[in-house]
Design goal:
mainly alpha, 16 helices, Growth Hormone, Chain: A, 390 residues, 86% helix
């Protein structure tokens, strides 16, 4: 039963990845259709991220009241409706309005399923969970690349993604009995979660040794979101590629992320987590530097794939570290804060790149911006390791 439920959770996590990659890939066409500047993508992303912050901060109370299953179902329904209504948008204000359910649904399901898997399953299974998120992110750019090549619009892509989300909703909806059986077998975990919610406030959690740098590491990890949102625009306006080619190249990021999480899942329980993260950080730095001089399309495919592959293991490894670095009575609350801080990074630092690029009139700064965020994230993980080591 636990294995079947895990597969259902994996499928549910695909629904989190579907909306995450579509905006950045579609934006070179969307902003022309809507009559707004390319930098407006950052503003739209802010609306989504603000909702995810609210949802993740409230997630502990919501999950306690309704349970992980109901939160997951409702979240998928929200993202499905958001994708469909975005496809009908003819004005930027309507587009931002319909992005709100994407943020609310994404924040709730992200925290709920990360908490659930971190407490019930191993590091290998956590990596596989986020690999399925990567599968979701691969669908949108691949689909849009085909649509652009055949003369279809970004609206068609959003409608198809909403249909896929509907199928996932039905699959998860049918799994209620599996959740009930598995939760009854995990009464010790449930007891710890209840104690955590009764005792700790967010301010108390942040005072736990190592908790603040741990949360900041998630904030600066937004270099992955920066890449997802801005890479296609960088390729179109920085390297003068057409939108279809840029969408195809962008899909290599998601293929790399998914491949990285699948590959590292098999060794995640045997290699120290901090070594896994450090190796990934070095590879990201090298790939970002290599991106600057390269103009050859085949080489760009390789460089972007390596960058995505290096992104892969960092986020799930950091999440699963939480249950070993912190006491069970506070680890679940800290995971909720980590998700909130991750979305704060998306809210502030992802659109900041668009503002800077618009002010300077160039998209060529993209690799350098990624490197700066990587340096800050590396510093935060180092401080976390030292604090938790003590």
């Amino acid at each position: 039963m636990a294995t079947v439920l895990l597969i259902i959770i994996y499928i549910a996590f695909i629904s989190l990845g579907l909306p995450d990659s579509v905006l950045g890939t579609a934006w070179p066409m969307m902003h022309l259709d809507l009559g707004v500047p390319v930098s407006m993508a950052g503003i739209v992303n802010v609306f989504i991220s603000l909702c995810t912050i609210v949802a993740s901060m409230m997630s502990q109370h919501v999950i306690r009241r309704f349970g992980t299953y109901k939160v997951t179902i409702f979240s998928i329904a929200l993202t499905c409706s958001g994708l469909y209504f975005i496809s009908t948008s003819r004005h930027i204000l309507l587009l931002m309005l319909f992005c709100i359910p994407l943020g609310l649904g994404g924040g709730a399901i992200d925290t709920a399923l990360n908490n659930y898997v971190a407490n019930h399953y191993s590091a290998m299974q956590m990596n596989f969970l986020h690999a399925f998120w990567g599968i979701g992110t691969m669908v949108a750019p691949s689909l849009l690349s085909v649509f652009f090549d055949t003369g279809r619009t970004w609206r068609d892509g959003y409608i198809v993604l909403a249909l896929i989300q509907s199928v996932i909703f039905l699959v998860v909806l049918s799994s209620r009995g599996l959740w009930k059986v598995h939760e009854e077998k995990g009464q010790d975990i449930k007891r710890l979660l209840d104690e955590d919610r009764k005792v700790y406030s967010n301010a108390q959690l942040l005072r736990v040794r190592g908790a603040l740098p741990s949360c900041l590491a998630f904030t600066f990890y937004c270099f992955e979101s920066v890449t997802i949102l801005w890479l296609a625009s960088y390729l179109v306006y920085g390297k003068r590629l057409d939108a279809a080619t840029a969408a195809g190249l962008s899909s290599m990021t998601y293929l790399g992320i998914t491949s990285g999480r699948i590959a590292t899942a098999f060794i995640a329980d045997r290699i120290p987590s901090k070594r896994m993260i450090q190796a990934s950080q070095v590879m990201i730095a090298l790939a970002s530097l290599a991106l600057i001089p390269v103009h050859s399309i085949p080489v760009l495919y390789v460089v972007i794939f390596v960058m995505g592959f290096s992104f892969g293991p960092i986020f799930p490894t950091m999440v699963h570290q939480t249950v070993s670095y912190f006491h069970p009575s506070c680890s679940v609350g800290i995971i909720g804060l980590q998700m909130s801080f991750a979305y704060i990074g998306n809210t502030l630092l992802v659109p900041l790149y668009g503002v800077i690029a618009a002010m300077l009139g160039t998209q060529a700064l993209f690799p350098f911006y990624v490197l700066v965020l990587l340096m800050l994230q590396t510093l935060s993980t180092t401080l976390k390791n030292r604090g938790c080591g003590k």
